[in-house]
Design a protein that fits this description.
InterPro entries: Acyl_CoA_acyltransferase, BcerS-like. This is N-acetyltransferase domain-containing protein. It comes from Algoriphagus ornithinivorans. By secondary structure, the protein is of the alpha+beta class. It folds into two domains: 2-169 and 368-373, Aminopeptidase (3-Layer(aba) Sandwich); 176-337, Aminopeptidase, CATH 3.40.630. Helix content is 33%, strand content 26%. The protein has helices at residues 9-22, 34-38, 97-113, 153-160, 182-192, 204-209, 211-222, 224-227, 233-243, 272-275, 284-296, 318-330, 350-358, and strands at residues 2-5, 54-61, 67-75, 85-93, 118-121, 134-137, 163-174, 197-201, 252-257, 260-269, 301-309, 339-346, 362-373. Strands 1, 2, 3, 4, 5, 6, 7, 8, 9, 10, 11, 12 and 13 form a 13-stranded mixed beta sheet that branches. Helix 12 (318-330) links the parallel strand 11 and strand 12. It is globular.
Length: 387
């Protein structure tokens, strides 16, 4: 076997195409957009490089010159852990433990040479909401920017010595004809009866002009301390701008207290139901296919991106009230979405798990994020629980 560092456009293309060949017989695998993967590894499209991040990629060839594996390793200065921790991701490999372990060894050695003391994987070279975790249960079609992999990868990671750092659950429930926990309904009705609270989805000029500000306000209070960073208004505006081609105003919902935003949930149509038809390319033909399927065969599933309530209004039933009031709108026969999936609920976030359970949602998929400590004598600790 021979390792080749990805350094040329030909290598970059092979990094993408080897996965396409590997999964060509897997009906549930959906080819990611090429630009969503390749763009992560270039300073022009990934601002982490401007903040001191580093990355390397390798291809693994067999004796006949065929690519049988790939891996990326990266250092993200924004990752704040007890020890310097790098990441590995975009791992693909034939069912050969020696090949897999050689890829892991290569990534580990480079990370060690850069001063890292641990590696998490498989993770993204960027934010946690994309390409994070190893699929270990629920091998149906992946949602947009969520990883799909062969089941035998789990044995590779665990036999190599990676240990479970946390689990990520995807919950699913039908949109219509499903009730809610009785205690949840009672709490919700008490809040809804309070005239200081109001709930609405955001549309029209308010969606473009005010929704990013509402989002920033709630996010920075509800999530920033857990995620390790706050967001600026410009970042929120950029996020909503990127979502504009697929946004459905019926899926953007906010809670207000005395007209100040205190909670939200942001959803989008599950666009992998469209992207699976474009074969990874958003060239002219890909864009035409996207518009065709968006118009004539639109997604019937919505994807929950993020949910939050500011701390001073948590535990009062605001979460329940927001969901119950939204359900009254989405339960109408004209509402086109049949199911909702809520991605990325970490097992370190019991509050969100309870919300999903009160929704009578079921765990539909499970991903594992692993950690490998280079000092094998050092005590291993799982991800801390959110309070």
């Amino acid at each position: 076997m021979k390792l080749i560092e990805v350094t040329t456009p030909t290598h970059q293309k092979e990094f993408i195409e080897m996965a396409v060949r590997l999964y060509k017989h897997e009906k549930n695998w959906i080819r990611p957009l090429d630009k969503d993967i390749e763009g992560l590894f270039h300073p022009e499209t990934n601002k982490l490089f401007r903040n001191g991040a580093k990355a390397k990629r390798w291809l693994l060839k067999d004796e006949k010159g065929q690519t049988i594996g790939r891996i990326a390793a990266f250092i993200n200065p924004k990752m704040k852990e007890k020890q310097p921790t790098g990441g590995v991701g975009f791992f693909e490999c034939i069912e050969d433990q020696n090949a897999a372990f050689l890829l892991f060894d290569t990534a580990k050695e480079w990370l060690q040479s850069e001063g890292m003391e641990a590696m998490d994987g498989p993770i993204n070279f960027g934010e946690r909401d994309k390409w994070w975790g190893l699929l270990i249960d629920g091998f149906s079609e992946p949602n947009y920017n969520m990883p799909w992999n062969f089941s035998y990868y789990q044995k590779f990671f665990e036999d190599y010595g990676f240990k479970l750092y946390f689990k990520q659950f995807t919950y699913m429930r039908p949109v219509q004809n499903v009730g809610f926990d009785e205690k949840m309904i009672k709490r919700a009705n008490q809040v809804i009866a309070n005239p200081d609270y109001s709930f609405r989805y955001i549309k029209g000029k308010e969606l473009q002009e005010k929704a990013p500000e509402y989002f920033m306000t709630v996010y920075n209070k509800a999530w920033a301390r857990h995620m390790g960073k706050s967001i600026a208004l410009k970042e929120a505006q950029l996020m909503f701008g990127k979502m504009k081609p697929i946004i459905d105003p019926r899926l953007i919902y906010f809670a207000f207290y005395k007209e100040e935003p205190v909670g939200f949930f942001i959803q989008i149509p599950e666009i992998n139901q469209i992207f699976k038809h474009v074969n990874g390319k958003m060239d002219l033909l890909g864009k035409l296919k996207f518009l065709w399927y968006k118009t004539f065969s639109p997604p019937n599933k919505m994807l929950g991106l993020v949910f939050g309530v500011v701390p001073e209004h948590q535990g009062k039933g605001v979460e329940s009230a927001m969901i119950i009031s939204y359900d009254k709108m989405s339960g109408k026969a004209s509402f086109p979405y049949k199911t909702i999936e809520m991605n990325w609920i970490g097992d370190f976030n019991p509050k969100m798990m309870r919300v999903c359970e009160q929704l009578l949602a079921d765990i539909y998929k499970t991903h594992h994020t692993y950690r490998y400590l280079f000092d094998r004598e050092k005590p291993f600790e799982r991800h801390p629980i959110f309070d």
